[in-house]
Amino acid sequence: MTDPIDWMTRANARAKGKRPDFLGDHDKERMLSILMAVIGEVSVLRERLDTVERLLEAKGTISRADIEGYAPDRDAGFERGAMIREYIARIMRGPQQMMEAMQTDDKPVEELSRELKEL
């Protein structure tokens, strides 16, 4: 297992370069950053749960070492890929619909950008 202090140091390291500013509001940017981090963590948990379920089904009992050493076979990898794609599609449904609506609008790009920043 990784040393928690080393992990925390790396996780809290400051990124190089300027922070992206997609929304024009620092509070919204922080919330988006937090939300994306939570989405990533849930994705990892879903894969780990899939590992536990597969090992239990195959062996009936498992250890932490079994979980840590598990490598999905081709079929499991394909199923996981589909699971993650579906998960991301559900998460991105709202933004995707907003983008589709903007493509049908005849508004100038500047006005659409202003509307997005006001959300």
Radius of gyration, in angstroms, nearest whole number: 20 Å
Compute the separation of the termini in Å: 42 Å
Question: Which blocks of ≥5 consecutive residues have pLDDT under 50?
Answer: none
Mean pLDDT: 85
Query: Helix tally?
Result: 6
Which structural category fits the helices and strands?
mainly alpha
Please supply descriptive tags for the structure shown above.
6 helices, 74% helix, 119 residues, mainly alpha
Structural description of this entry:
This protein is mostly helical and 119 residues long. The protein has a domain at 25-92. Helices cover 74% and strands 0% of the residues. It has 6 helices and no strands. It has helices at residues 4-11, 26-59, 64-69, 74-91, 93-104, 109-118. The radius of gyration is 20 Å and the shape is flat.
